[in-house]
Amino acid sequence: MSQQLQIMKLTKVVVCPLMGYIGEDAAKVVEFLQSVTTPPDKVKCPKCGQEIESERAALHLVTRHCRVTGKKVVCDLCGERLDSMGNFMRHVREHLVVGVLRNGMWIWYCTICGREFTSKRSVLVHVLKSHEVED
After folding, report:
1. How many CB atoms lie within 10 A of CB 19?
2. What's the Cα-to-Cα distance from 38 to each of 96, 130, 132, rounded to whole Å?
3. Contacts of 43-47 spanning 24+ positions with Cβ under 8 A
């Protein structure tokens, strides 16, 4: 990137199934997402390498990459310990979102499909409804 972008991530670790990345470099993820034109139907889990349908990517992370230890749920993506499965599910969605300040306005990206949103709430709802199977 030619200029320094102001980037915000909601968790220490960013997970981008679209590019198969898990790590702390949100700028790398944003640069990649800005180049995406058409997201694929399938993505690769950056934690285990399994190919998954993009609409089930968040569900895969929630069901496959947590450990329940006593009363805590441990995120296998970053090691954070959460006190309920509901909080863990929210936490996983936050791994899948990055924001960039562009022209004085925050733009939020879904790291599963690359879609842009103008509010953090909208992208979090999108991840919940478009990339997880709700009961």
Report:
1. 18
2. 18, 16, 20
3. 43/17, 43/18, 43/112, 44/17, 44/20, 45/17, 46/15, 46/16, 46/17, 46/20, 46/21, 46/22, 47/15, 47/22, 47/76, 47/77
- Characterize 20-42 residue by residue with b for buried, 16 or more Cβ atoms within 10 angstroms of its Cβ, and e for exposed: ebbeeebbbbbebbeeeeebeee
112 vs 124: CA distance, rounded Å = 12
pTM of the model: 0.91
At 73-129, the pLDDT tens digits run 999 999 999 999 999 999 999 999 999 999 999 999 999 999 999 999 999 999 999
CA angle 76–81–87, rounded 5-degree value: 95
Over residues 17-58, the pLDDT tens digits come to 999 999 999 999 999 999 998 888 999 999 999 999 999 999
CB 74 within 8 Å of CB 8: no
Write down the domain spans for the chain.
6-130
